């Protein structure tokens, strides 16, 4: 008992300390709700403020309230919030306050804090799902950037190819001009001798020019085709981007609706659990009463059975004792059996004499 009492006293003292810390934390969150400003200047990121409220919860649970207040003030200054985001912060603060209140009630009633651990686990799961959605969005953006980069590379390659072909056309035109000039110079000296060669050369040049024109037309058609393909690819990528944005918006909305639905289901389950617990306690009370009545009835029946067995055993013992006493009286001729024995002896002697007489007659 001397060793047990300090342990019990220490546990009670620790529970009282934890309850005091939780009550102080509730007061701190209530004060934060009153002093929360309408908006801040700077970024519009809200995640740091929500995370700060849970850090306040953990630090306050460990007893470091001053550090928790400093942490929230710094996060609030660094994270600017709009009116919508501010309502989100207030909702997170209210959620943290409800979790602490539930933990405080559990500590006061049963001395445990399982509700706090469950709330932290639910928050970690929610945050993990949120991070998974962000990662998927980042992967989609990276894929879009990769496709845009590939499109730019293809465009640069086609532009370079077109430039090289234009340079080739210009080079061939220069060659044609040089050939014409050379033909004119030679025609001055050997006009008659080279008329046929000039004709053949002109014909060849016409053929080359026609081939070049045909090649140019082919290049123009191919360029138009590539431009059309480029526009179709660009339109396709834009449509894919719009679809991805619509899917992202749909999943975000679905996530919010599912979160709200699950919260309502959780509240319903909590209320049902409380009702079931009260009914279970009432049934347990009735069971204890019925069990007590059954135990008392069994004790009474057992006592009656033992009494009947005892009476039967005593009766059997009395009968055995009476039989033994009667046998003893008969064997030792005690009591009423003493006078009855003599006639039997005389009768036995007469029988012996009669037997002897019969035996003598037979011998004769």
TrEMBL record:
It is found in: Cell projection; Cytoplasm, Cytoskeleton. Residues 342-351 have a biased composition (Basic and acidic residues). PANTHER family: DYNEIN REGULATORY COMPLEX PROTEIN 9 (PTHR14871). GO terms for cellular component: cytoplasm; cytoskeleton; sperm flagellum. Residues 137-182 form a coiled coil. Residues 352-364 have a biased composition (Basic residues). Keywords: Cell projection, Coiled coil, Cytoplasm, Cytoskeleton. The keyword Transcription regulation does not apply. Its main location: other. InterPro entries: IQCG. Residues 336-364 are annotated as: Disordered. This is IQ motif containing G. GO terms for biological process: sperm axoneme assembly. It comes from Chelydra serpentina.
């Amino acid at each position: 008992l001397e060793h047990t009492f300090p342990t019990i006293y220490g546990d009670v003292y620790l529970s009282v300390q934890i309850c005091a810390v939780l009550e102080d934390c509730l007061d701190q969150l209530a004060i934060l709700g009153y002093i929360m400003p309408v908006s801040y200047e700077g970024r519009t990121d809200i995640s740091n403020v929500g995370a700060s409220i849970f850090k306040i919860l953990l630090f306050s649970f460990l007893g470091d309230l001053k550090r928790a207040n400093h942490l929230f003030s710094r996060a609030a200054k660094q994270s600017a919030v709009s009116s919508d985001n501010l309502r989100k912060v207030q909702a997170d603060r209210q959620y943290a306050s409800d979790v602490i209140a539930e933990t405080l009630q559990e500590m006061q009633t049963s001395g445990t804090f399982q509700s706090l651990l469950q709330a932290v686990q639910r928050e970690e799961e929610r945050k993990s799902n949120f991070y998974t959605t962000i990662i998927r969005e980042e992967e989609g953006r990276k894929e879009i950037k990769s496709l845009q980069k590939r499109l730019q590379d293809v465009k640069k390659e086609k532009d370079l190819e077109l430039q090289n072909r234009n340079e080739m056309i210009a080079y061939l035109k220069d060659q044609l001009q040089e050939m014409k000039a050379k033909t004119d110079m030679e025609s001055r000296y050997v006009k008659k001798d080279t008329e046929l060669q000039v004709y053949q050369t002109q014909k060849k040049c016409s053929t080359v020019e026609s081939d070049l024109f045909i090649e140019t037309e082919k290049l123009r058609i191919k360029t138009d085709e590539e431009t059309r393909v480029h526009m179709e690819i660009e339109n396709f990528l834009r449509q894919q981007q719009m679809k991805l944005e619509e899917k992202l918006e749909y999943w975000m909305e679905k996530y919010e609706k599912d979160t709200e639905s699950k919260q309502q289901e959780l509240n319903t389950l909590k209320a049902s659990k409380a009702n079931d617990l009260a009914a279970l306690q009432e049934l347990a009370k009735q069971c204890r009463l019925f069990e007590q009545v059954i135990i008392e009835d069994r004790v009474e029946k057992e006592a009656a059975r033992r009494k009947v067995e005892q009476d039967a055993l005593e009766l059997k013992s009395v009968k055995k004792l009476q039989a033994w006493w009667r046998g003893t009286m008969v064997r030792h001729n005690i009591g009423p059996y003493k006078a009855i024995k003599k006639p039997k002896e005389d009768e036995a002697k007469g029988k012996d004499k009669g037997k002897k007489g019969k035996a003598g007659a037979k011998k004769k």
